[in-house]
Amino acid sequence: xxxxxxxxxxxxxxxxxxxxxxxxxxxxxxxxxxxxxxxxxxxxxxxxxxxxxxxxxxxxxxxxxxxxxxxxxxxxxxxxxxxxxxxxxxxxxxxxxxxxxxxxxxxxxxxxxxxxxxxxxxxxxxxxxxxxxxxxxxxxxxxxxxxxxxxxxxxxxxxxxxxxxxxxxxxxxxxxxxxxxxxxxxxxxxxxxxxxxxxxxxxxxxxxxxxxxxxxxxxxxxxxxxxxxxxxxxxxxxxxxxxxxxxxxxxxxxxxxxxxxxxxxxxxxxxxxxxxxxxxxxxxxxxxxxxxxxxxxxxxxxxxxxxxxxxxxxxxxxxxxxxxxxxxxxxxxxxxxxxxxxxxxxxxxxxx
Length: 352
Hints:
62% helix; 0% strand; globular
């Protein structure tokens, strides 16, 4: 009976995970007490309760290392379990066990899967330092691997920006393989526990593909939307440029989030950014211009973008008023100083 169920689930989609493999895996699990958990599924049990039980069962395994624990929790979208279980031994212990290469892949996964709470967790605990995380290659890769880039594509088309494609490269393929294959070969999770994780988290094999856009295309779009934009980092990804770090990573990720309709992430990066007031006004302009690009029938999308613009506008205004109450001279300087990244734009014209 169990073999029949496993075969019906497998459906021949992946020859590697057959019904026989599933039976063998279950037999191996039953030989290890620490891999077995009991859960009573009754009428009072909710889907949330069941998800949490599965997650706790995986995390309690003594052979599962913190890198895998964090990744499992991310896939389930359960930051509460991270805080309750993974942090139980303290932040310093967690930092000592986490590997930078794995953490960068986890951050990229969290960004692409729109897990704002996990991104904030990684930043606040300084598990990932954004000043060394975001380089030219990574930002280009993020733009090209968002699951739904329809709003960005619509905006590019509306403003007449020709999408400049880049050929597939070893750099892009390596980044894709590293992040998509979330269980790296150097995992400390051993034996059967690793097989459980692999079955749970396995994604379809990822092939190197042609990038549908690049940073010069995004630069041209920002120039047309804002009237002025200039950044030497928005260049083609090459062996020489791919590791160039952005001096203001939160600004670049804010723009990425706004253009890809990831509003919670945009607000998070805005709060972390150094120049919050000008960036907020830039965001207002971007939301306004994106809303204009949407089809007239997409009233829901237009309302959402208008609300985001209004929130940024009001919060930026409150920040300016607070600055003025502390020092009117500094507030005026803040509004009048030219912004180099934005081609000499000043806050005052942007606010009009």
